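Before a colleague's protein record goes any further, I have to sign it off. Thanks in advance; the entry in question is below:
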Amino acid sequence: MTTDATSGTSPTNSSGLVLYDIAFAPPYEENTCAPNPWKARYALNFKGVPYTTQWIQMPDITTVRRSLGLPACRKFADGTDFYTLPALTDSTTGSAIGDSFDIANHLQITFPDAGAGDLFPPQNLGFEFHGTIAIPLSERDDDDLHADYARFNANVDMAFTMHAQLMAHGMRWDPAYEDRIKAEFMRRTGAQSWDDLAIAGEARDKLKVSLRDALRDLAAMFQRDATGPFLLGGRPSYADVIVGGWLRMMSKTLPESEWEEVRTWHAGVFGQLHAALRERFGGLVGLEDFPSFRIVNPASVYLFRVRYMLTVVYECGGGLRKKPSISFQVSLIWFLVSLFWATQ
């Protein structure tokens, strides 16, 4: 039902945090792309706290949430419960949190000064988008903590979810669960077949234009501070994470050519935001897996040594690159770190 993993973890995990994320096709760490779990993951990495990940197959989400004592945070139009992820458990406080926004609130309260600082700095978040969709979004009260961020989250979610058909067929599932997952999507949306969720040709082009136009006002907010790439210029916040979760989804599910289009929309603000979030809060494999930079398992030390040597061959062999890439630099860092811890 569940698969233990160490994505975004320290082997000691002194904070006692466990993130429950949706398992896509193996390797899960590479293909994970659900926007709300990514909001939680970015927030965890923002705070720089160690955590472990449990990968949950979609048909098992309801059972897992119930086992954690977490009610459904959404309902379908017919009133039935809609169970989804992420969820976070915190053994140090005995907490179980079942919504990405509540997870961010919990992290800010529990670790107010950790990592990159305040997730919710004051700012103007006046973006609005209204629509109707089949899959429900979480509803929050206006008196919620950080209500301005909550409203921003709801409007951003609506703008992207209204255009989620562009991404549906790009999701890659574990073959062992694929048929059950597709059947669940059909049930949720009322589709008669999986192919009904596909969109191509002129209809797809129109939906892309609609998404681009829907994001125009949002993009303008990122252009208010020319120092970028975040809404507050060089200072990231949870508002950037809210948008970044959806950009992660699009980067993994859209055809490559379409993703490149999105990256250039509106003076390239979304491409710049996606790249900045990846670099700072979890986009690079390795940094994401062990943000504490501590490797205590000897097998892991040798694994990273092998990874480094293979990267050297790729980067330097035949003069393929004149300047070392970011992945090469990260691998070099890991090699040096592994040498240090191997001697401890």
DSSP finds 13 helices and seven strands in the chain. Residues 108 and 119 are 6 Å apart (CA to CA). The chain has a mean pLDDT of 80.
